[in-house]
Amino acid sequence: MTGGAVLQFEWFVDWLRGLPQWVFNIIEVIRGIIYGIYDWLWVVINLLWTLVIDNIFFLFKAVIFPGLIFVVMGLIFFVWFTRKLWGRIQMRRGPMHMGKYGGVQLFADAIKLISKEIIIPDKAHRWAYRFLPSLLLVVVLVPFAFIPWDTVWFIADLSVSLVLVFAFLAAVPVIALLAGWISGSKYSLIGGFRAANNQFAAEIPMIMSSVGPAMLAGSLSIMGIALAQSSVWFIFLLPINFATFLTASIISVGVFPFDAPVADSEIIFGWRTEFSGVYFTLTYFAEFAEQMLYSALMVTFFFGGFYGVPWLPGAVNFIIKFLIMLFVFVTVSSSFHRLRQDQIVRYCWKYLLPLSMLNVIIAMLAIVYVPGLALLLVGG
Amino acid sequence: MTPDILDETVEVWFGPQHVSAHGWATKLKLVGDFIVECDPHAGYFHRSAEKCLEYRNFRQGSPILERLCMLEAFLAEYPYISAVEQIAGLVVPERAKVLRTIMMEASRIHSYQFWWGQLSAEMGFFAMTLWPWVDREFFLDTFEELTGVRHSPHFSTPGGLRFDFTEKVLAKLEKAIQVLEYNMPKFEDMLMKSPLFRMRTEGVGQYSAKEALRWGLSGPNIKACGIPMDLRKDQPDPNLAYDMVDWEVPILEHPDHPGESDAYDRMVQRFNEVKTSVDIIKQLIPQIPDGPIIDPKARAKANRLPEGEAYGRVEGARGITSLWLKTLEKAQTPYRAKIRGPCFHSYYALKHLVPSARFADFIVIFGSLDPYPGWWDR
């Protein structure tokens, strides 16, 4: 009996002796894994850090100054500016209670709108309803990367950035049409089709008007067009193109004289009717962002971009002209009666399109036949 | 067989939760951008005003009528008061007659000022919406100085008035008219000479005088067709002071389409109406006689009325506003009161006017007739 018990006991002692080694091995393995992850992370972080250090200037531009934060703050300022100016034009005071001169009103409004209940209609496509407003804002904000605020302060510059910007902007009415379609409301659908109709009417005159500056500059890059105006601004050579571009951009944004897509007395709020809460905020901001984008493009194409007062930094020159363009935008959009949809289309095709082509032809003939002009353009 | 395009209509409810449908709803059938059928519905604003009148005595009835149209409150309350005065045989003092007329014309101007803004808002021009409304504040100040409230003043009472004019009221009224006369040319420029306004309104909602008569339109809507149909001139009320004034009924004869009116003509006509009203007030203010504003026995006489029927009417800002009143012997309340609002007819005229118009023009046609939902739902 005893022999069997001793045998059992010895096996147990052996097992006990091996236990520390076993625990040690497990710890070793875990330590190896942790060190491995640490080493790997170290390499990755080093790599990333090197990337950040190497591109710190680009990151700063993309995130802070002419990039996201600057544009969003500019957007908030512009909404306040628009409301204040509309108030002044309409003999009101505009926002005035939140902060000095109502400056914080927009934050209060945004908090209110974001915290509101989101009501999605039964007939709406829920996924698209949640996705499209964000997509719209992104599509409108991305072209800001190509705006040359200064010779140094720009995010990206491509040789075809002009075409790329218009490609992005061509997506806006598609999103508006889709938003009207998926909302599951007849008013939204009518508004969506009107938005698309507006854009189809206005886009060709607008691109025709931008052909003039591109031809004079000999470049399809927005930066190239801005650089070409060092000696003479294109507004002096292409005044009609500027007028057509301004009108076409107002039509394509869909603000007041041409706001048939969101005409509140006819089709409640057009394709935005069913959007509520934060989705409405996004579409609303997208409209203002689009106005800002067109103002910046007009400054670049016709008002010499960053050229202006010589002893001021280029970005300051640009922003001053940018604010003046925003002022023009708001003033024009608050002093006319609304046109009907068919009248807008007729107006675009009968008047804007021939006019926008006319000025390009005149400018080309002038460059060929007026001797000093070509020298002036190249800065001679 | 070709498919009928009318088979593919889209039905759209314009109201009652639509932004510009403040208490009314119209069913529209669309083919593309065109309206092929318009079905105005009444009843979304119904507050049983006629039944309410049967439960109030003769001095309490007029505020109910003011609620039907806040904008022309001085005019809206008058048909009831006129009917009570006719049944009770009350004699209104001279001063009360003149003051009543002045305030009724002021109320008319105020109503049109509101309407300029409203039509502009419906066409998306909000600066022009708020500019006349700023001038309208001066008239509201006058009403407040006179009666203590800005809307629903309850100014007249059977047999006279409840409030008398003071120097301050007159000064405020003169100031209001001064501001109006200073700003009206600007509004004429912004509306009648604006090419975009003309593009939107000319040829829109056009009807002939014959059609207007058949539909029962009245007021500026028919005067714009060139028919001088005006109760102030046709059947002068003995309790109002229009005979003391030298004035002409404003009508509009458009050179291109005489005998017809479109939305643009009706806007021009309402400017003419305002000019006439200003003229009447300016002539009446120097003629205000001294004396009491109410017969001291009127209050007792209006407590119990003899048996009778009467039809009180007035040329309101939107057309003929009238009320038929029947009382029984020694009545403290009416047996029956029937209101005939001017806008019931202009609202149902949409049924004939709107088809074949564009969807965007619907609200312009509606606005150009100047309807107020209180008048058709009562």
Which helices and strands occur, and which strands form pairs?
The complex is a heterodimer of chains A (380) and B (378).
Chain A: H1 2-54, H2 56-63, H3 68-89, H4 105-114, H5 126-141, H6 161-182, H7 186-217, H8 222-227, H9 234-237, H10 239-253, H11 277-302, H12 314-332, H13 341-369, H14 371-377
Helix pairs in contact in A: 3-11, 3-12, 4-11, 5-6, 5-11, 6-7, 7-10, 7-13, 10-11, 10-13, 11-12, 13-14
Chain B: E1 10-14, E2 25-31, E3 34-41, H1 49-53, H2 62-68, H3 73-76, H4 78-88, H5 94-122, H6 126-147, E4 156-157, E5 160-161, H7 167-192, H8 195-201, E6 207-208, H9 209-215, H10 220-223, H11 231-234, E7 260-261, H12 263-284, H13 298-303, E8 308-315, E9 320-327, E10 336-340, H14 343-348, H15 350-353, H16 362-368, H17 373-377
Antiparallel strand pairs in B: 1-2, 2-3, 4-5, 6-7, 8-9, 9-10
Key traits:
heterodimer, A: 380 residues, mainly alpha, 14 helices, 71% helix, extended, B: 378 residues, alpha+beta, Cytochrome-c3 Hydrogenase, chain B, 3-stranded antiparallel β-sheet, 17 helices, 47% helix, 13% strand
Q: What would your notes on this structure say?
A:
The complex is a heterodimer of chains A (380) and B (378). Chain A is mainly alpha-helical and 380 residues long. Chain A folds into 2 domains: 2-54; 124-377, no CATH class. Chain A has helices at 2-54, 56-63, 68-89, 105-114, 126-141, 161-182, 186-217, 222-227, 234-237, 239-253, 277-302, 314-332, 341-369, 371-377. In chain A, helix 6 runs antiparallel to helix 7 (186-217) and helix 11 (277-302) crosses helix 12 (314-332). Chain A is extended, with a radius of gyration of 30 Å. The model of chain A has no long low-confidence stretch (mean pLDDT 86). With 378 residues, chain B is α+β, with helices and mostly antiparallel strands. Chain B has one domain: Cytochrome-c3 Hydrogenase, chain B (Orthogonal Bundle), CATH 1.10.645.10. Chain B has helices spanning 49-53, 62-68, 73-76, 78-88, 94-122, 126-147, 167-192, 195-201, 209-215, 220-223, 231-234, 263-284, 298-303, 343-348, 350-353, 362-368, 373-377; strands spanning 10-14, 25-31, 34-41, 156-157, 160-161, 207-208, 260-261, 308-315, 320-327, 336-340. The longest helix of chain B is centred in the first third of the chain and has 29 residues, at 94-122. Chain B starts with 9 loop residues before the first strand and ends with a helix. The A-B interface holds A 86, 89-92, 186-187, 190, 256-257, 259-260, 263-269, 334-343 and B 10, 12, 18-20, 33, 120-131, 134, 194, 196-197, 199-200, 358-363.
